[in-house]
């Protein structure tokens, strides 16, 4: 395990390979998860691919949950981590809120980008009303109150039926996150709309979504892809919101094809 202090908070990360590698992918995790959601990809990625994983603020083993934070803080954390590790160019891959963090990073630090992968995300996710309702539910009932609904959005019915032990494990991952960190991230999602940012993206961009995603359905992700000039849009079959867990082979194939072109 590796830790560093960014913006006054401890960040848990793991760098596998070289910070200056051409095929470096920086992964940003989704709400209620930590960087372990990307681990199933490792057996599928080639030896020439370097990887940076990190737990976003208030999630996993990273700190910063004790004080409220917003999207600008999440973006600043990622930029600071890249600078601390000497990363000058990379492909950034963000899932869900991690995708919004990557969009915000493009707005703040386009110099860091070689390419961009936006996975099961959009410039705006859900509505302010939905986020406010979820936050109220969690404030009164804790993360346990939202866990079953999250699992329905995260994974397909087949995964629920055939991967019961894994489902229980990912449910534990969510419920063991910091309540305060989860709520601040919900507020960041509620308050963020990067629709005006996407048309400014000038690096090769790939949008990916599971065909059964209950959080950001394919039509929502495809609509976002139309805002980025020349963006590529791909749907992964038999998959919901977290393709790195449910269909790692398919996601890895898309990533490797994408980063090796051009």
From TrEMBL:
The reply to whether Protease figures as a keyword in the UniProt entry is: no
Boundaries of every AB hydrolase-1 domain copy: 25-253
Enzyme type, top EC level:
hydrolase
Tell me which EC number(s) this protein carries: 3.1.1.24
The reply on keyword S-adenosyl-L-methionine is no
Q: Which Gene3D superfamilies match?
A: alpha/beta hydrolase
Origin superkingdom: Bacteria
Q: Which GO terms describe its molecular function?
A: 3-oxoadipate enol-lactonase activity
Which InterPro entries does the record associate with it? AB_hydrolase_1, AB_hydrolase_fold, Carboxylesterase_BioH, PcaD/CatD
Keywords attached to this Swiss-Prot or TrEMBL record, sorted alphabetically, are: Hydrolase
**Name under which the protein is recorded:** 3-oxoadipate enol-lactonase
Native organism is Peteryoungia desertarenae
| Gene name as annotated | pcaD
